[in-house]
Amino acid sequence: MKKRFLARSRSLALVAIAFALAGCSDCSCAVRQKSVQVFFSPSGGITEAVVQSLGEAKQAVLVQAYSFTSAPIAQALLDAHKRGVHVQVILDSSQQTDKYSAADFISHAGIRCLIDRDHAIAHNKIMVIDGETVITGSFNFTKAAEEQNAENLLVIRDTAVASEYVSNWRTHQKHSVVYARR
Questions:
Q1: Any idea which residues carry the catalytic annotation?
Q2: Which residues, at least 6 apart from 174, have a Cβ–Cβ distance to it below 8 Å?
Q3: Helix, strand or coil for residue 152?
Q4: Domain-wise residue ranges, the chain
Q5: What are phi and psi of 118, to 5 degrees?
Q6: How far apart are CA 9 and CA 81, in angstroms?
Q7: What topology is assigned to 33-178 in CATH?
C-alpha cells in the first residue's frame, strides 16, 4: 500500500511539473520559474544572471569554459572565493596563450585553474554552483558574447542535473593540468 501511495505521489508531482513547464495556469508556475531561467544575448542580461548566481554561491563553484575574458564574471568568482566558496576552473588550452584570458587573474587570486589539453577543443561552457545550480548554454564567458553575439544561457536549479555536470567536470579534471601562470 505504501509503495503504491509513493508511486502515485511521484506521478502526481511529475504531472504538476509537466503542466507548470508547459505554462498551465491551473498549476503552480513557481515550479517553472524556480527550476529553469532562460537568457539570450546580445545585451540580454546573461552576464548579470551569471554574476547574480555566483553571488548566491555558498559552498562550491565548478567552472568549465572555452573562452573566458569577462571581467565581471571573473570578479564574481573572486568575490565568491573571498567569501570562502571553493572555486575551481577548467579552461580550454587556448586560454593558456590567449592575450586577454581571465586565467591569469583568477590564478593569481588563488583560485585553482586547470587547462584541459586532452581535447582538440574543450568547448564546455558551464558552472555548477553548490551542487544544485547549473549554468550552461552557448554563452562564452566573454564581453563579446554579452554585447555582440547571439547566445543563450540556461540557469537550471536541479540537483540531479547538477550531479551529472559535477561528474562530467570531475572526468575532465582528472586529465587537466595546472595552469602555468604568465
A1: 123, 125, 130
A2: none
A3: strand
A4: 33-178
A5: -85, -10
A6: 40
A7: Endonuclease; Chain A (3.30.870)
Q: Give the confidence band of 182 by pLDDT, cuts at 50, 70, 90.
A: low
Q: Please, what is the Cα angle at 95 between 58 and 100, to 5 degrees?
A: 90
Interacting residues of 57 by C-beta distance below 8 A, sequence separation 6+: 80, 83, 85, 129, 130
**Cis peptide bond N-terminal to 42, omega within 30:** yes
Query: Which range is least confidently modeled, 4-8, 57-61, 128-132?
Result: 4-8
pLDDT at residue 34, as a whole number? 60
Three cell numbers, residue 55: 553571488
The amino acid that residue 53 corresponds to is S
Using H for helix, E for strand and C for coil, what is the string for 84-138? CCEEEEEEEHHHHCCCCCCHHHHHHCCCEEEEECCCCCCCCCEEEECCCEEEEEC
